[in-house]
Amino acid sequence: MLRRSLPLLALPLLALPALARAQAAEFLSLEAALALLRGPVAQGLNLYMRHSVTDRAQADTGRLDDRAGQRNLSAAGEALARNLGAGFRRHAIPVTEVLTSPVFRARDTAELAFGPARIHPALIADDYTRRDPARDAAEVSALLAQPVAGGHRVLVGHIVPLGMILGRGLSQAEFPEASLGLFRPEGTRWRHLGFVRAETLAA
Fold first, then answer.
1. Residue 43: per-residue pLDDT
2. Which of 45, 49, 101, 151 has its CA 20 to 30 A from that of 69?
3. 67: which residues sit within 8 A by CB, 6+ positions away?
4. How are beta strands 95-100 and 152-157 bridged, if at all?
5. 173: alpha, beta or left, given left = phi > 0 and alpha = psi -120 to 50?
6. For residue 108, what pLDDT is reported?
7. Would you say 160 and 140 are in contact if contact means Cβ atoms under 8 Å apart?
8. Which domains, from first to last, does the chain contain?
9. Contact by Cβ (8 Å): 179, 84
10. DSSP per residue over 165-190, as a string?
């Protein structure tokens, strides 16, 4: 059963930290996720996806244009991204826009799952950017409040920025690699509807 989430202001960040911390994450079942993603009220959701499973043996140097200096997707992560995209098609989940972090593990996830994607600088991992991470998180938070016509917007990013947006730290178990957070735009706000594992939706 889908637990009701309380709406949080999209901006400013951390405006309601106590309320944000009170919302423990729950993974949605396939039935609950599909009810949100395919139902009549589902059009225009924003799906914040963490990049797929990575090779933890690789060092992450923070050099943005150097693939060899980044933690990249593992073979299992590449397969999961492809299977997630196939699951979206199998379940007829409409996607109208895909935005991605410029970090290779996010770009690869987006392209393997959904095809061509547009790089959005604010989706970058917090430890890669010379920009202000709080400002980037605020920009992405504003995106989560923007409606999308005819389907869903997918934003492929990283765990720490989403924690900043929600106003609390996210553990690896709470938001594992390849999982998605579902957000419904509500005017200038968004409502966090819950998390779903990629494996739940994958073909």
1. 63
2. 49
3. 104
4. parallel
5. alpha
6. 98
7. no
8. 17-201 (3.40.50.1240)
9. no
10. HHTS---TTTS-TT-EEEEEEETTEE
Question: CA 196, CA 178: separation in Å to the nearest integer?
Answer: 9
One-letter identity of residue 144: L
Query: ω into residue 133 within 30 of 0, thus cis?
Result: no
Question: What local confidence, expressed as pLDDT, does residue 193 receive?
Answer: 95
Low-confidence ranges of the chain (pLDDT < 70): 1-25, 39-43, 129
Which one, of 34, 28, 38, lies nearest residue 151 by Cα?
38
What single-letter amino acid sits at 74? S
Compute and round to an integer the Cα radius of gyration of the chain.
16
List b or e across 6-15, with b for residues whose CB sees 16 or more CB atoms inside 10 angstroms.
eebbbeebbe
pTM (predicted TM-score): 0.87
* Helix locations, 155-197, DSSP H: 159-166
Q: What is the pLDDT of residue 59?
A: 83
Contact residues for 132 (Cβ-Cβ < 8 A; gap 6+): none
According to the model, what pLDDT value does residue 44 have? 86
